[in-house]
Amino acid sequence: MKALVLAAGFGTRLRPYSEHTPKPLFTIAGRPLLDLLIRSLVDAGCEAVAVNTHHLHHRIAEWIDRNPYPIPVICRHESAILGTGGAIANMADFWDERPFLVINADVVTDLDWAGIYREHRRHPHPATLVLHDCPEFNTVSVDDRGCIRGFGANDASGEGKPLAFTGIQVLDPLCLQFIPPAAFFSSIDMYRSMIRAGHCLKALVRSGHRWHDIGTPERYRDACLEAMIPEAFQRAFGEPVHLEDVKRKPLSGDGSDRSWWRLRYEDRSLILADHGIRTSLETSEADAFVSIGTHLRDRGLPVPALYRSDTFSGLVFLEDLGDRHLQEEALRLRDDTDALAALYDEVIRILIRMSVRAAEGFDDGWTWQTASYDIDLVMEKECRYFLEAFLNGYKGASVSFASLEADFRRLAEGAVQDGEMGFLHRDFQSRNVLMTAKGPHIIDFQGGRRGPLQYDLASLLIDPYADLPEPVQNALQQLALKELQRHRPTDPQRFHRGYRYCRLSRNLQILGAYAFLSRQKGKAWFEPYIPIAVRRLKHSLSAFEQGTFPALGRVVKNL
Q1: How far apart are alpha carbons 326 and 344 in whole angstroms?
Q2: HSE-up of 299 (CA within 13 Å, CB side)?
Q3: Which residue of 61, 98, 310, 378 sits 20 to 30 Å from the alpha carbon of 144, by its own alpha carbon?
Q4: Does 415 score more than 90 pLDDT?
Q5: β-bridge pairing 127-132 and 421-424
Q6: Is the domain of 356 the same as that of 445?
Q7: Mode of pairing for the β-strands spanning 27-28 and 31-32
Q8: Degrees to nearest 5, angle at CA 34 with 28 and 40
Q9: What does the alpha-carbon distance between residue 528 and residue 540 come to, in Å, rounded to a whole number?
Q10: Cα separation of 146 and 158, whole Å?
Q11: In contact, 410 and 548? CB cutoff 8 Å
């Protein structure tokens, strides 16, 4: 048995994702669909596989070259796309006198290739098409002899209800006679010609199998979920689950565009983070989430376990750590400063440990924004963000970047030069710390990179969600210094100086983010925290000598 995988299409309904990756290389549970098809054909006893290519053909050829198979796998590039029928005819020199299998490359299925081939060999007809009942695609009519009579409303109808073509067929070489040479031609037109010539196209009807056409983003996502949910539960709990019994409940997110779900099966649950399908070949947020999360876990840090992921589809399955955030505990203990400080004591020790340990062996290639917290980042992602999103966008001011640029640069240089460098979480605040029976756990680490520890410390202490009292902040800042000194020599003056710069930088970023999310993203629940952040900003500026940030000080004074 030989087989042809039809892989030349443009994947039009999958744009923009198919503009950088051909549809056959979309992954299912981390493996390209083309690889899944070829491996299953090998397991079914296939002797050789051909793959026709056109759109992004070099990507498919490179994949096959990098992944040797135990049988010959050849690529045939079509400089002008030939259609499904033209592709079959273009492989005439590949076929021999035996029937051959043809499969659409966008099919995810567990159908038995060898069994289908055997069924074809049992009858005398030149073609066998595998059909099933799929209401969305039911257009193929079949007569009472099991012969296909038409492929749409304008064709002859059969006696039963229409069925759907799975994109899987076994053909005798006779079929090649019904395809014009070296021209674009549809296999459906070939079949219509064969019916008119009196041939029976045998319908092989299947049911109870897995089958997905991943031709749209929604169907692609469904195919990924169907494959990955049972695997994730198996890895997490060591027991299989029945997919139809897994309940899915959407969870509310914060500032991210990701969607979150709790998946529950009986008394077991997992969290699904859906980052969306990859939009470019660059490192994505999902890539960073998986790589950095795995690294933190390997370094012994308290982050959720990652059980299954596919960074092309953007799906990541995580340990369910519950819903109790540090924010809730901080607000509950607000009037008990001793208890509040004790609550944050453990979190700060984790922060210091994370900064030191996670910096060891950290790969800058894991990051999806910038490899480190540097002057350019502060200028663009903190200062300009504050100016454009908050001052001008939210407050309606008309402040030019040039008028504040000198102050912004002084701030950026101070935050970087006096920073105690290590691993930087970049959003280390109370809603990204979950309180569990096993202690605090850190989430949302995908923005991690190299940077100053003081920035994460400032993120935690000036966090408007928790609104820690100033005396508690001061005590915790001292605790952080002492804890860091246990790991490495640290100059207290430099530490505190760097903290002041990082606190101001983080404050600007917070206001930019809250303004953008509340007004541009329609997430109004961020807006009530803006007055707290403004109050914090004024306090952050007051920690510097008068005249350090003259232009910024004048602007902030009037807020």
Answers
A1: 9
A2: 20
A3: 98
A4: yes
A5: unpaired
A6: yes
A7: antiparallel
A8: 90
A9: 20
A10: 9
A11: yes
Q: Which amino acid is at 341?
A: A
For residue range 64-74, list pLDDT tens digits in order. Answer: 999 889 999 99
Q: What is the rounded CA–CA span in Å between residue 388 and residue 383?
A: 9
Structure tokens at 327: 């924010």
How does pLDDT run across 362-411, given as a tens digit for each residue? 999 999 989 999 999 999 999 999 999 999 999 999 999 999 999 999 99
Domain final position from 191, 213, 235: 213
What type of residue is 213? Answer: D
Phi, psi of 276 (to 5 degrees): 90, 160
Residue 538's φ and ψ, nearest 5 degrees, are: -65, -40
As a whole number, mean pLDDT of residues 478-498 equals 96
Band of pLDDT at residue 11, cut at 50, 70 and 90 = confident
User: How long is the chain?
Assistant: 559
- The owner of tokens 């009292």 is 469
pTM: predicted TM-score of the whole model, two decimal places: 0.91
Bond from prior residue into 135 cis (ω within 30 degrees of 0) = no
In sequence order, the 6+-apart residues with CB closer than 8 A to the CB of 194 are 126, 127, 175, 178, 201
SS3 at position 247: strand
For residue 238, give the 3-state DSSP assignment: coil
Pure H helices in 202-318: 217-237, 285-298
Tell me if 203 sits within 8 A of 163, measured CB to CB: yes
- Same domain? For 70 and 11 the reply is yes
Q: Which two tokens stand for residue 131?
A: 């059909």
Are 311 and 379 part of one and the same domain? Answer: no
Amino acid at 200: C
> Looking at beta carbons, which pairs linking 478-483 to residues 24 or more positions away fall under 8 Å?
479/345, 479/348, 480/348, 480/351, 480/352, 480/453, 483/348, 483/349, 483/352
245 lies in the same domain as 199: no
Q: What is the phi/psi pair of residue 148, to 5°?
A: -75, 135
Amino acid making up residue 258? R
What separation in angstroms does the CA of 3 have from each of 37, 66, 69, 369?
A: 10, 20, 14, 43
Tokens of 371: 């490899």
**Which residues on neighbouring strands pair with residue 28, listed in sequence order?**
31
Q: What is the DSSP secondary structure assignment for residue 314, as one 8-state letter?
A: T
End residue of a domain, out of 213, 233, 256: 213
- In which domain, by residue range, is 344 found? 326-557
Return the ∠ at Cα 430 (arms to 425 and 549), rounded to 5°.
Answer: 70
- Look up the CATH number of the domain holding residue 285: 3.30.200.20
Task: Retrieve residue 485's tokens.
Answer: 């000194």
State the pairing for strand pair 100-104/141-142. unpaired
Residue 19 CB neighbours (<10 A):
14
Q: Residue 238: count other Cβ atoms within 10 Å of its Cβ.
A: 7
Count up the domains in the chain and report the number.
Answer: 3
Mapped onto helix, strand or coil, the DSSP state of residue 492 is helix
Rounded CA separation 460/454 (Å) = 10
